[in-house]
């Protein structure tokens, strides 16, 4: 009875070996004692009772032997159940990782894989071990879930993990499973990379996915799809430029797209890269023009000035400079931004305008009208600021009345029309009224004009 209490229920480890040896010795001693007593005893029983002695002895010996066999079977079942519990725990880990971001799921999945590998190799003959192949199929199915759901960017990391198990997991257990991830991974890299073209906030960036596609699967059908997809992305945005809808945003997308293409090393995209560069140039001009029309003169001046610097050989560089000048004038005098300055200078006769600098510091004169441009006049070293207002004791003070040679000069040849002027004087270290001053003039055929630029000291 005491042995039954200790041994049952049967578990994986069973009862201690010393207890079993002691139990065997005990049985032998009991048998020997029975034999001794039987040999000495005088039986008064009949012959029929004597015939039962041997079967009873056999039964008495068979009971503990059968019990040992049954106990061994129970212990084996306990071992099987323990292995099945380990398998279930690994299954639960895989399930708990489903839906997590892969960087968080990967440590959990690694523990499950360790269990699957141990059960499938060291316990391959057990019921749990025989179930491991089916569990690996389920594992691949679960981890590749983002791909089935067409979440291609999210699918890249788990698919790379599944494909890479060939180098870390038992190859006999894995079989051909890692190779089956090649097509899904190539498609995911293609879809993720091409969808990120022109998207500055995309993670991963387009070039990251496309470079990996070209490097890992150079002969994949998805690799050959990249170049047409890139050209289509460029065309979609150039068409948007033609429509005139949000050209600055479209240009920003084109610039991001071009930056990605420059970072992709495959030569098949060289032609598309050139197309993207041309589209960016076109977009920059369209953006600056749109900013001017929207009266965003400060940004228009910056955009067009940068355009002229970046594309000095462009046929539109001169026009861009004109728009930048007109935008700068319009920022001070909005009437100057009523319309874009013309792309070409009108023909016909020109009128002379002589501009003189009667003030301290270098001065820049910007003008726009039928013709747009700017000139810079050197500082007048002997000139000073006029007291303001320009009337003193009721008498008007006239500027530029000294000897003509005293004043730095520039000559403009202007077509007839209405002009806006902006005088921008370089600071002389003292803040003065009149450092920036706008004005208007009408240039008529057959006349010559003078324009005197001066500085007043206040009102």
Description:
The protein contains 16 helices and 9 strands. The chain is of the alpha+beta class. Strand 2 and strand 3 form a beta hairpin. The radius of gyration is 47 Å and the shape is rod-shaped.
Features of the shown structure:
rod-shaped, four-stranded antiparallel beta sheet, 56% helix, 9 strands, single chain, 459 residues, three-stranded mixed beta sheet, alpha+beta
Distance between the termini: 120 Å
Please report the total strand number as a whole number: 9
Low-confidence stretches: 430-434
What's the Cα radius of gyration?
A: 47 Å
Strand count, sense and barrel status of the largest sheet are: 4 strands, antiparallel
Please state how the strands of the largest beta sheet are arranged side by side. Answer: 3-2-7-8
Percent strand equals 5-15%
Rounded mean pLDDT score: 87
Sum up the overall morphology in one term.
rod-shaped
- By secondary-structure content and strand pairing, the structural class works out as alpha+beta
Order of helices and strands: HHHHHHHHHHHHHHHHEEEEEEEEE
Helix content: 55-70%
In DSSP terms, counting alpha (H) and pi (I) runs of 4 or more, how many helices? 16
Give the helices and strands, then pairings:
Layout: H1 2-7, H2 17-40, H3 47-97, H4 102-121, H5 127-143, H6 145-148, H7 152-164, H8 171-174, H9 182-195, H10 206-216, H11 221-224, H12 226-243, H13 247-263, H14 270-293, H15 297-310, H16 317-332, E1 351-358, E2 363-368, E3 373-377, E4 391-392, E5 395-396, E6 409-414, E7 417-425, E8 436-443, E9 449-454
Parallel strand pairs: 1-9
Antiparallel strand pairs: 1-6, 2-3, 2-7, 4-5, 7-8
Helix pairs in contact: 3-4, 3-5, 4-5, 7-9, 9-10, 12-13, 12-14, 13-14, 14-15, 15-16
């Amino acid at each position: 009875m005491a042995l039954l209490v200790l041994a049952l229920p049967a578990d994986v480890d069973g009862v201690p070996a010393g207890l079993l040896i002691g139990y065997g010795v005990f049985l032998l001693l009991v048998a020997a004692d029975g034999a001794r007593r039987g040999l000495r005893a005088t039986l008064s029983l009949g012959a029929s009772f004597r015939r039962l002695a041997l079967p009873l002895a056999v039964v008495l010996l068979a009971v503990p032997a059968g019990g040992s066999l049954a106990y061994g079977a129970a212990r084996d079942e306990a071992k099987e159940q323990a292995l099945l519990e380990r398998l279930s725990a690994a299954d639960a880990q895989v399930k708990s990782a489903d839906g997590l971001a892969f960087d968080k799921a990967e440590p959990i999945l690694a523990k499950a894989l360790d269990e699957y590998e141990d059960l499938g190799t060291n316990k391959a003959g057990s019921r749990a071990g025989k179930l491991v192949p089916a569990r690996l199929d389920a594992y691949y199915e679960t981890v590749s879930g983002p791909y089935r759901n067409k979440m291609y960017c999210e699918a890249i990391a788990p698919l790379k993990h599944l494909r890479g198990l060939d180098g870390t997991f038992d190859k006999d257990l894995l079989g051909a499973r890692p190779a089956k991830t090649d097509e899904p991974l190539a498609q995911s890299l293609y879809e993720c990379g091409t969808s990120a073209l022109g998207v500055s906030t995309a993670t991963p960036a387009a070039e990251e996915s496309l470079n990996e596609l070209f490097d890992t699967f150079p002969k994949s059908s998805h690799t050959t799809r990249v170049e047409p997809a890139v050209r289509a992305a460029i065309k979609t945005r150039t068409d948007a430029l033609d429509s005139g809808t949000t050209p600055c945003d479209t240009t920003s997308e084109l610039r991001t797209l071009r930056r990605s293409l420059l970072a992709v090393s495959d030569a098949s995209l060289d032609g598309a890269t050139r197309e993207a560069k041309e589209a960016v140039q076109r977009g920059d001009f369209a953006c600056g023009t749109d900013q001017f029309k929207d009266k965003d003169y400060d940004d228009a001046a910056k955009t067009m000035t940068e355009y002229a610097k970046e594309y000095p050989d462009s046929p539109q560089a001169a026009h861009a400079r004109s728009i930048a000048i007109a935008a700068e004038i319009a920022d001070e005098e909005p009437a100057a931004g009523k319309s874009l300055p013309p792309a070409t200078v009108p023909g016909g006769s020109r009128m002379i305008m002589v501009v003189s600098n009667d003030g301290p510091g270098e001065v820049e004169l910007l003008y726009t009208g039928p013709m747009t441009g700017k000139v810079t006049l050197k500082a007048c070293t002997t000139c000073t600021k006029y007291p303001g207002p320009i009337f003193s004791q009721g008498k008007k003070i006239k500027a530029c009345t000294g000897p003509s040679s005293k004043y730095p000069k520039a000559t403009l040849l202007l077509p007839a029309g209405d002009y806006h002027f902006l005088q921008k004087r370089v600071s002389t270290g003292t803040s003065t009224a009149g450092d920036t001053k706008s004005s208007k003039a009408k240039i008529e055929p057959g006349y010559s004009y003078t324009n005197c630029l001066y500085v007043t000291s206040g009102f």
